[in-house]
Design goal:
13 helices; MetI-like fold; mainly alpha
């Protein structure tokens, strides 16, 4: 099977999955306690009763649940994500101004995690049961056990409030006029540092343990002994042969988890007031803003499918024995 045919087949088989996810999510968010108009009334207490009834009919909240879902699905297929029940803004605009911030945060966090975990995991595996290995395992255990919100708060306290090195919230300095694009990038990186480091270090702990165990398993293979008997340098054996095979499970985990990281950055975005999709999903959940919740669910589900597909392709590129 060729690559193009494989991609098309995977995308076609993903349609029923995405449809099932949308049905389940739609039912859960609508059956949960609370109503978006109740929150709208709480935010706008002077709204007359006739306006609430008008909004209920306008948004179709007086219709049966299955009719509401069909209406939403038809709008989605036409490219219309609808309007927020709370703010009245187009959902596509609300997500559009935030999705890049979430992607930027998660990708930077993943790069931090990989750049630390791969060399640390390899060193820990090669020098198994040494002081370096023990320190690495303690670091990994602490990272896995440490709640991300606690780590974020500690970073804010130490690096923002105590040392004054980084800002405490936001993706950029409010009201600042940049003289050039490089000044804007520097300001955005300055704000990105702590949230990305918080999310990245939590990932680093898990990936370090995964790389270590994978490398240790590969070091016990016969081809490693054969390579050493041929007189290859230890660095060549480790980084050209062992690491390439050891990265297969790492690629799988990274690829499968990237889509979930887009939605899993809710806590980090909330702690740092980062204007991303995770924070928007948190607010939409509190206010029962159905169109926003459904749009975010569809986007994250689609991202998970696409990252799974990319993982399969990269997996085959790393290991030529794997065919589509």
């Amino acid at each position: 099977m060729g690559l193009k045919e494989y991609v098309v087949r995977r995308l076609i088989t993903a349609i029923p999955t995405l449809l099932a996810i949308s049905v389940i999510t739609f039912a859960i968010v609508h059956l949960a306690p609370g109503d978006p108009l109740q929150f709208f009334l709480a935010l706008n207490p002077d709204t007359p009763p006739w306006m609430i009834e008008f909004l209920k009919r306008k948004y179709g909240l007086d219709r049966p649940l299955h009719e509401q879902y069909i209406k939403w699905l038809l709008m989605l297929l036409s490219g219309d994500l609808g309007y927020s029940y709370i703010s009245g803004e187009p959902v596509s605009y609300m997500i559009g101004v935030r999705v890049w911030n979430t992607i930027k945060l998660t990708l930077t966090a993943e790069l931090i995690a990989l750049s630390i975990s791969i060399p640390l995991g390899v060193i820990s595996a090669v020098k198994s049961n040494s002081a370096v290995d023990h320190a690495s395992r303690v670091f990994a255990l602490m990272g896995v056990s440490m709640p991300v919100f606690w780590l974020g708060i500690m970073f804010i306290y130490v690096f923002s409030l105590w040392l004054g090195l980084f800002p405490t919230f936001g993706a950029a300095t409010t009201g600042k006029v940049y003289s050039n694009i490089f000044e804007q990038w520097a300001d955005e990186l300055w704000h990105l540092a702590l949230p990305a480091l918080t999310l990245g270090l939590v990932r680093t702990a898990f990936l370090t343990r995964l790389v270590r165990s994978s490398v240790i398993g590969e070091l016990q293979m016969d081809y490693v002994m054969t390579a050493r008997m041929k007189g290859l340098k230890e660095r060549v054996v480790i980084y050209k042969h062992v690491l390439r095979n050891a990265l297969l499970p790492v690629v799988t985990v990274v690829g499968l988890s990237m889509g979930f990281m887009l939605g899993g950055a809710v806590i980090t975005e909330t702690v740092f007031a980062w204007p991303g999709m995770g924070r928007l999903a948190w607010w939409a959940t509190l206010t029962r803003d159905y169109p926003v919740l459904m749009a975010i669910t569809v986007i994250i589900s689609t991202m998970v499918v696409l990252f799974n597909l990319v993982t399969d392709i990269v997996y085959a590129l790393i290991d030529p024995r794997i065919k589509y």
